[in-house]
Each structure stands twice: as structure tokens, then as C-alpha cells.
Write a structure and sequence with these properties.
One of its GO terms (cellular component) is membrane. The structure is a single chain. It contains 13 helices and seven strands. It is elongated. The two termini are 35 Å apart. With 388 residues, the chain is an alpha+beta fold. The strands form two sheets. A five-stranded mixed β-sheet has the order 1-4-3-7-2, with helices on both faces. The protein has a two-stranded antiparallel ribbon with strand order 5-6.
Length: 388
């Protein structure tokens, strides 16, 4: 049917399913937004792999009804398949912190940086004003196909309206269970993050200073971490290498302990295991994303299938070679040093204690994971049981 026929169906029927050629989520959203026109007050967005809580939409509407200065609101996204693998399990813990700590903090200052695609609600009269600009977004001459949710949020922020988050609205969405698919997903998200960071910077002056502070810190954080790690790995001292490992896991454990206290769930302590996933996978992938921001390929295959795109693995290999080079340099340097002095003996004792603490941490955490989580993964039935 033509455009007018689709608009008539959408505006007169309660439920309408429109089949169109695949072109990514932005194409589907544009069709729906365009067909709705100004016939509704609010528009909800959702993903195809998402299950909504019965009260999810009601809670979102309540936020927009209470404050006309709020242009969009997002809900709490939980993982539908946390027991598929260690990747999906750690992702489920990371999601909880991302929404109930990070986005909740942003919401306090009325500047949520991204209304996530699985669950969001927008004021339609505002959305229609920038619909064409959002749909035709280009970056370095390339039409943008992903990052639609973050750009929708940025467009709303650019108009001076607040964006909020509510934990009362909840949904469950599927996450990649294999490392390669997760890595491809994170690389794609990082591309849109860096691209939208540049656009978001244009509107910092219209919102609370927290928006500027968090954007600057989160934007520079990967570069600071990478530079610090490389500097310590090439310092030529074994204590520097051990210091990196202890600091990374120490900070991760402190963050996990806070999340466990906040949620009232000891399982959140296992969030500290996400640190190696970030340092060894996501961190180098961010640099690939930065170098390929203008490429519009999604980089992921169908759901529950092994990723066919191995390009995101290349920065991981390069990162591993860089760290290995620093490790070899430090080992060679220390092998030639004189360890007979009292200061060296004290350093050796400190190294032994630090290494013991580090290995002990991993022994405890992996045991807890294997006993408390891994056995549940093996027993998981074919389907998912979610109370919604």
C-alpha cells in the first residue's frame, strides 16, 4: 500500500503490522513516526527482542504527564538471557549498574544521555519537529544507520528539553551470549557514542553542568586508561605491572561492592569480573570504533549466531602485542638487575604479597561464579521464564 493508505491504517486501527524492506531500525521507526504524524501525544519505542513489563508504558507516561519540560523518558532494561553464557551473565550485571546508577544519576540532573532503544517514550509533537533531520542524519558524508536512539535523545536535548529515567518501568531484552557478537555490538555502540559525543557537546550550555562533566570524563576515560596501562607496562619494574592488575581489580571490586549494597544482592560482587572484559575487549574495541566512525555496517549477524565479522578482534590482537612487549621489556630489565640488596628483598616480599592477594581474589571469585552461576547455566531450560 501507498503512504496514505499506511497512514490511514495506522491512525484508524488499534494494531497494525507494516512489512517493509529491511534497512535497519531507523527505517522502521521512521515509517511509524511518519505514519502517526500528530495523531498521538506520545510515541513509545521498543526492540524486536524485548518483553515489556505490564506497567512499563504506564510508568513512562506518568513521568511525561507530571512535567511538561521533560521531552523523553527511558526505563530499566534487564537482560532476558543472563544464564546463556558468562558474557550474557556479566552483561546483565553491567546493565543494572548502567541504568540504576549511571542513568539514574543523569536523570537527577535531567540530562539522560541515551534513551535506550528497548524502552523509551517521546513527546510526539517535539519528535515530529526534528523527524526529517534525525532520519537523514549524516556523518562525514555517510548516512547514519545505527545510533538512532542516542541521536533521538540528543535531538531532544538540543531543543532544551529534559530527558529522564525511571526504574519503575522495566523491560527484558536479549544480549549476545558469544564473545564475538558481544564485541561487535560494543564496537557498533562505541561508534555511535563517539559520533554523538561530538553532537552532544554543542548543547552542553543548555543543561546542567553535570552533563558536561560526565561527558568529558567518560569521553576521555578510555584514552587515559590506555595511556596509563601502557606507561606502567613499559616502566621496566614488576611492581608497576602488578600495580596495574591490583588497581584495576580493586576499583572493580569497590564498584561491585557498592552495587551489591545498593541492590541488596551479593551476586553483584561478581560484577568485578567485568573488568578484564573491559580492559581486554571493550577498551581496544573503542579505538577501532573511533577510527571507523563513518562506516555504517552493523557488524553483527542474526540472533543466536556466531559473529561473521572478525574485524573487531584486530585491535584486541594489537593491544595484546603492545602489552606483551611491555611485559617482555620489564622481565628482561629485571633479569639483569641486582636483587641482593635489602630494598630489593623488601620489594620481592611486597610482590609476593601482592601476587598472592591477586591470585586469591581470582580463586575466590571464580569459585563463587562456578558454584553460584555456572551450574545454573548448565541447568537452564530451553526457554526463558520472566515474570512480566
Amino acid at each position: 500500500p501507498g503512504r496514505l493508505a499506511v497512514e490511514t491504517l495506522v491512525r484508524t486501527r488499534r494494531c497494525v503490522c507494516v512489512a517493509q524492506r529491511w534497512g535497519g531500525k531507523r527505517e522502521v521507526m521512521y515509517t511509524a513516526f511518519k505514519a502517526l504524524g500528530d495523531s498521538v501525544d506520545y510515541v513509545q519505542v521498543c526492540d524486536s527482542d524485548t518483553r515489556l513489563d505490564p506497567l512499563a508504558l504506564l510508568e513512562l507516561v506518568r513521568v511525561l504527564d507530571e512535567d511538561p519540560r521533560v521531552g523523553a523518558v527511558g526505563g530499566d532494561v534487564r537482560i532476558l538471557n543472563p544464564l546463556d553464557s558468562w558474557v550474557s551473565f556479566l552483561s546483565s550485571l553491567r546493565y543494572w549498574v548502567a541504568f540504576n546508577v549511571e542513568r539514574a544519576c543523569q536523570s537527577y540532573f535531567h540530562c539522560v544521555s541515551c534513551i535506550s532503544g528497548p524502552l523509551g517514550l517521546y513527546r510526539n509533537n517535539l519528535l515530529q519537529q526534528f523527524l526529517e533531520a534525525w532520519y537523514n542524519q549524516k556523518f562525514l558524508g555517510t548516512h547514519c544507520t545505527f545510533g538512532d536512539d542516542r541521536h533521538l535523545t540528543n535531538r531532544m536535548l538540543s531543543m532544551g528539553y529534559a530527558t529522564k529515567y525511571t526504574s519503575r518501568s522495566r523491560c527484558y531484552s536479549e544480549t549476545p551470549s558469544s564473545f564475538l557478537r558481544w564485541l561487535s555490538q560494543q564496537t557498533r555502540w562505541s561508534k555511535s557514542y563517539f559520533r554523538e559525543w561530538l553532537y552532544n557537546a554543542l548543547w552542553w550550555h543548555r543543561h546542567h553542568a553535570w552533563m558536561t562533566y560526565e561527558a568529558v570524563v567518560s569521553g576521555l576515560f578510555p584514552f587515559f586508561v590506555a595511556a596509563t596501562v601502557l606507561r606502567l607496562f613499559y616502566a621496566g619494574r614488576p611492581w608497576a605491572l602488578l600495580w596495574v592488575l591490583l588497581c584495576v581489580q580493586g576499583v572493580a571490586l569497590a564498584k561491585a561492592a557498592f552495587a551489591a549494597w545498593l541492590r541488596g544482592c551479593l551476586r553483584m560482587l561478581l560484577l568485578s569480573l567485568y573488568a578484564p572484559l573491559y580492559m581486554g575487549g571493550l577498551l581496544p574495541a573503542k579505538f577501532l570504533a573511533l577510527a571507523t566512525m563513518n562506516q555504517s555496517g552493523w557488524g553483527t549477524s542474526g540472533r543466536r549466531q556466531l559473529a561473521a565479522n572478525y574485524v573487531p578482534v584486530l585491535p584486541l590482537a594489537l593491544w595484546a602485542l603492545l602489552l606483551l612487549g611491555g611485559l617482555v621489556r620489564s622481565v628482561v630489565h629485571e633479569a639483569r638487575a641486582d636483587w641482593s640488596g635489602p630494598s630489593r628483598a623488601a620489594e620481592a616480599r611486597h610482590l609476593a604479597v601482592g601476587a598472592g592477594a591477586y591470585l586469591g581474589y581470582w580463586a575466590i571469585m571464580l569459585t563463587l561464579y562456578w558454584v553460584g552461576v555456572r551450574r545454573l547455566c548448565r541447568r537452564r531450560a530451553g526457554g526463558y521464564r520472566v515474570q512480566v
